[in-house]
């Protein structure tokens, strides 16, 4: 029997989109503030993983839920196991959306929503690949497991738990973000640099906040500064906004001058796709004579880290023959 798989995929398109809409509606961001025994990473990631298993049970597949941390869908039989490693968690939505990030929208042949490309959409496409095989009576001679993790976006909690309780697969790939597949991912490390709280007298940095997660380019930054010359400071900020690829606003408060910068959030897999609001804020502040730890903090961000996703300024750049360039993101400030 010859099967036109491209045409078959088109036949399943609407069913796929219907299921994807349900997945996108689940806010599966890790929520440590609402951890419970049943939901160790918060309800969202587990509920999205369970929705995948619900689809599979509806369609007659074997499934297993491993403590609401990771689950898998199984098809085929044989001595060897092929793993399709995917995840149901998503990054925080952040600002700047023109639509509700947790309501799937179809427009001009594209689908918008948090997780459409990373990784609910690709994971569901892999599932529908299995479904098409099953519906057409094709039984693989290798056991295939579509593994759905719940915290790939940081420390791979789901896969770590899977390997604690299940045997390692013999081979596999990851349907995650890039078509058609990913067969390797770079490792990552998170470094935290701390500074004191000392300031000078003419300029005082009272607050600086930017970023939601270490592996996201911050799209917003806020700072609160006391100055000896508010008018000069505000005029300089207005010029800075005009001369750089960021937007923002400034206002006087009872505690000082409040600054806000809006850049462009992006996934840290390629920081160049974003505009880091935090390092731009530091670059603006760096032109003023702060002192003490405030000066060191600002200068470190502005002079050593700003606009340098390959870490050349701190001599930490590296290129691997297989995995390519190492990338550095300044995620939380």
From TrEMBL:
Pfam family, one: Peptidase_M20
EC class (word): hydrolase
Keywords: Dipeptidase, Hydrolase, Metal-binding, Metalloprotease, Protease, Zinc
EC number(s) recorded for this UniProt protein: 3.4.13.-
GO molecular function annotations of the record: acetylornithine deacetylase activity; dipeptidase activity; metallopeptidase activity; zinc ion binding
GO biological process: L-arginine biosynthetic process; proteolysis
Cofactor(s) demanded: Zn(2+)
Cited InterPro entries: Bact_exopeptidase_dim_dom, M20A_pepV-rel, Peptidase_M20, Peptidase_M20A
Keyword Protease attributed: yes
Keyword Zinc: yes
NCBIfam families according to UniProt: dipeptidaselike (TIGR01887)
Family listed: Belongs to the peptidase M20A family.
UniProt protein name: Sapep family Mn(2+)-dependent dipeptidase
Originating organism: Lentilactobacillus parabuchneri
